[in-house]
Amino acid sequence: MSLDVPATLLDRAERGEVSDAEFVDCVRTSLPYAWRVISAVVDDLRAGDEEFADHATPPPSEAERGQLLRALASDAIRGGLERHFGVRLAFQNCHRVAAFRISAVDGAGYRAFISPRGQLLNQSPELRDC
């Protein structure tokens, strides 16, 4: 299961829309490792002048790797996190997470990161089975 949804939030979702804040809080509590990684990347981005910041350390276990995969493979979760933090997220190799300034999304750095070439250049034998 991707998220641990409280019964009250599930009830509200069954009756209609829920707020981004409620959804993002559910993500934060359900996927704490993914939340920490993404929050840290966003903090690094905000602390500097670069167009993006990234986290390339493999997760300590498969459970944490699974959290990153669930957070970034879901359009709803990724979109909620992007709106919450005001960034564009990018993802490679089941653990490399980058946060881009919205103003950089049309830039060369973003296009290079998300390109097939960028993916191929970010490969290594030890990451083959991640």
Notes on the structure:
The protein has one domain. It is globular. The chain has 130 residues and is of the alpha+beta class. The longest helix has 16 residues, at 32-47. The chain has 7 helices and 3 strands, in the order H-H-H-E-H-H-E-E-H-H. The protein is 55% helix and 12% strand. A 3-stranded antiparallel β-sheet has the order 1-3-2, with helices on both faces.
Q: How many discrete domains?
A: 1
- The number of distinct β-strands equals 3
Strand content: 5-15%
Shape: globular
Distance between the termini: 20 Å
Structural class: alpha+beta
Give the H and E element order. HHHEHHEEHH
- Please count the helical segments: 7
- In round numbers, the mean pLDDT is 89
Helix content: 55-70%
Strand order of the largest sheet: 1-3-2
Low-confidence stretches: none
Query: If you compute it from the alpha carbons, what radius of gyration comes out, rounded to the nearest whole angstrom?
Result: 15 Å
Give the biggest beta sheet: 3 strands, antiparallel
Can you give keywords for this protein?
single chain, 130 residues, alpha+beta, three-stranded antiparallel beta sheet, 7 helices, 3 strands, 12% strand
Helices and strands in order, then pairings?
Layout: H1 7-15, H2 20-30, H3 32-47, E1 52-55, H4 62-73, H5 75-85, E2 87-92, E3 96-101, H6 108-114, H7 116-121
Antiparallel strand pairs: 1-3, 2-3
Helix pairs in contact: 2-5, 3-4
